[in-house]
Amino acid sequence: DVQLQASGGGLVQPGGSLRLSCAASGFAFGDYDMSWLRQAPGKGSEWVSTINSRGYTTYYADSVQGRFTISRDNARSTLYLQMDTLKPEDTAVYYCKANVDSRDYWGQGTLVTVSS
Questions:
Q1: Other Cβ atoms within 10 Å of 4 Cβ, number
Q2: Which of 10, 67, 86, 107 has the fewest CB atoms within 10 Å, counting from its CB?
């Protein structure tokens, strides 16, 4: 079974940094593009970033461009999101997502709270 487990969230002050991780199992991680999405309290989900299967190409939402960096370690089947210069509006539950054989899989999210 495809399993995705995000971790690394927490409480951080505005301007601070966090690094999220997503441990993947149950599929050939290195063969698939991976994404991060987030859902703020009371709002719908928002796409944040995508990285291609080899890690050579990345895409970012305008709201995080220049502040967040997506990366992956295919040998460890792990996806990362480095978040710098965090803002209160980045507060959300962050999820990693894989599209495997035309089906979307979401992991358990990790809560990021940006507040002073």
A1: 23
A2: 10
d(CA 103, CA 111): 24
What does the H/E/C string look like for the chain? Answer: CCEEEEECCEEECCCCCEEEEEEEECCCHHHCCEEEEEECCCCCEEEEEEECCCCCCEEECCCCCCCEEEEEECCCCEEEEEECCCCHHHCEEEEEEEEECCEEEECECEEEEECC
pLDDT one-digit tens code per residue, 70-79: 999 999 999 9
Q: How many residues does the chain have?
A: 116
Question: What's the CA gap between 57 and 11, in Å, rounded?
Answer: 30
Closest CA relative to residue 116, chosen from 86, 82, 81, 84: 86
